[in-house]
Amino acid sequence: MAAANLPGVQAIVLPSDADRTGRDLGAEELALLREVIESGTLNCTKGTQVKAFEKAFAERYGVPHARAVTSGTAAIHTAIAAIDPEPGDEIITTPITDMGAIAPILYQQAIPIFADVDPVSLNITPETVAARLTARTRAIIATHLFGNPCDDVGIQRVAEAHGIPVIEDCAQAYLATQHERFVGTIGAIGAFSLQQGKHMTTGEGGVVITTDARYARRMMLFSDKAWGYGDPNPDHYFLALNYRMTDLQGAVARAQLGKLEKVVMCRRRTAERLTVLLADVPGLTLPAPVQGATHVYWKYSLVVDPEVVIGGADALGAALKSAGIFCVPRYIQKPAFLCQVFVERKTYGTSRCPYSCRVRDGNGEVVYEPAEYPGAMRGLERIVVLPWNEFYTDAHVEFIAASIREAVLKLSQTKRDRRGRVGRTLSPGTPTRLAGRADT
Question: What are phi and psi of 296, to 5 degrees?
Answer without folding.
Answer: -115, 5
